[in-house]
Amino acid sequence: MENTPRINEEITASDVRLIGADGQQIGLLSLASAQQQATEAGLDLVQISPGTSPVVCKLMDYGKHKYRESKKRQEARARQKQVEVKEIKFRLSTGEADYAVKLRNAVRFLNEGNRVKAVIAFRGREIVKQSLGRERLETLRHDLESIADVERAPVMEGRRMQMFFMKKNEKRKSNAKNENQ
Q: Where this protein primarily resides, as one coarse class (predicted)?
């Protein structure tokens, strides 16, 4: 409850700078007279900026204010898009026609804003031909380089070689967010 502002009797300052319900500045008043104005108007006295001297308070219906803020947060969550990781699987024996279908799917996934995880599964003695799997992933990287960046280079995990892709402009956005923090 540290983020909630002080209201009415919770305010401890002796003098406050009061702002009316319409946003107009009323002036510098004692706490008692500011609370009296709030009760006469049927509103709450809400401390807006506690760090200033004198403390700034505003006349408002605090319950309605909290309701509006929760609705804004709810709408922001509804507009937010979840980024998913879509997986496309290959084998060393995957033919060119099947590769073209998987490439088309990868392009579609990237254009939808999702990330793509390309996996080559090795079975049996195929594990000794990891260089062919790496070449297949490099071919995929070359085919996607106009719209995607490599998020993670090819890595062997067990009997699977994995590589991650993300849309080009998405990487710039995430780097800009990291620099601003």
A: cytoplasm
pLDDT of residue 31: 82
**CA distances (Å), origin 140, targets 20, 100, 113:** 63, 10, 18
Residues 30, 149: Cα–Cα separation, whole Å: 61
> Model-level pTM?
0.52
Q: How far apart are CA 96 and CA 39, in angstroms?
A: 77
Paired strand residues for 14: none
**Residue 50 maps to a domain:** yes
Range of the domain at 25: 8-78
pLDDT value at position 176? Answer: 52
Contact present, 49 and 56 (Cβ < 8 Å): yes
Running along the chain, 181 residues long, what does each successive block of 10 average in pLDDT? 72 82 83 84 83 84 87 86 85 89 91 90 88 90 89 89 85 51 49
In the block, tokens 């104005």 appear at 37
Q: Where residue 48 sits, what CATH number does that domain have?
A: 3.10.20.80
Closest CA relative to residue 90, chosen from 166, 162, 155, 156: 162
